[in-house]
Amino acid sequence: MRANRLPAFSVAGSFGASAATWVLLQQFAVRGLVAVKFLAIGRMLGPEAIGSVSVALLAVAIAEALSDTGLAQAVIQGEHAPTRSQLSAVWTTLTARGVLISLLLVALAPLLNSQFHLDGSLVLLQLAALLPLLRGLASPTYYVVQRERRFQHIAGVEVAAAFVDCSVGLALAYGGVGAVSVLLGLVAGETLKSALTWLTMTPRPPLRVVWSGIGQYVGFSRWIWASSVINLLLNQFDKVVVGKLLGPAQLGSYQMSSRLAQMLLADAAIAMSQYLFPTFAAHHRRNPQGAARLIKVYLLAVAVGLAVFVEALRLVAEPLFSLLLGAAWLPAVPLFRILVINMAIGALIAVLVAYLRAVGDARATVHASAIQVVVLLASAPPAVHWWGVTGIAWSMTLGLGCAAAWMLFRTLTARTS
Hints:
By secondary structure, this protein is mainly alpha-helical. It has 2 domains: 199 residues, no CATH class; 197 residues, no CATH class. The protein is 83% helix and 0% strand.
């Protein structure tokens, strides 16, 4: 009887509301749907259309990074759960941020259209401006659900939104709508996600404008904001250079190789960080020494797995592009072989960031980003001179490696008492 009960207990535990299994299932489903959408639309429309969409999404990423409040991470990491009044203040702040970002993007759309050679694709930028607004309107209870590690609930919301995004995008693309279909799918998915955060998550904050009550989060969140601003340069520098100097077609090739490498490598670690951040935080609150031992196990497993996977992807890069995207995308293969290394280092960094923020050392991640900026600024000019666009990718590799080394040092030498 004991032998019969143990497997049942194990399976039940693996699918408990807080189990990492839900994070993995969410990752598999969401990233799978994103992959299907972008690969199918990329094959239909080609590099130039994907490049135009990338410019619109790049503008959103820049605006959101510059205005990152860090409140979401602060709510998850905080010693005490927020009150309903504090949640109202968080919602007021995030909604105001979303409105301001959207208005700014609409105002700057004509300038971006001319600077990135979009040839009249103004509607792409205007549609992209809806995304930060929809995200700002979502219920901040989503972060409480993350804090409480209700990963089953989060997975349901995220997968539903991704399914709508993929379905709407593909249907419109097959119907001949063009590049706009990508953004219309994203808008539909974000609309559903924001609605579900209010309809399915409790406690619901009162819908009133409140600006006070989040002072306790400011000390932690300012480091998140600083990290976001620095990461803005690190994550978007190469894309801005390629888009500005070479136009949408080259940006499309660069972006697709980057996205494919990210989907195959970094996204899994980024998704796992959603589980690791609140999990490490909970462990650290109860037993700092135990959390320090746990991170070493995760780091060893991640490093070994990534090394094997990167080598495999580099070997099959050319047939992979030919099979998934067609001959038009083969010039992106050399970039892909470099970018899989970048994404592997980024995956390791995602685990390190989750731990350092969970133990309250968000400052270390800012320092690591600053190191990466210095390395990038020093190495990019000669690298671009000698190797062109691939030089930018190699420069990013060097910077990521230095940042990862610093965070690893801070993680392994952190005081646990």
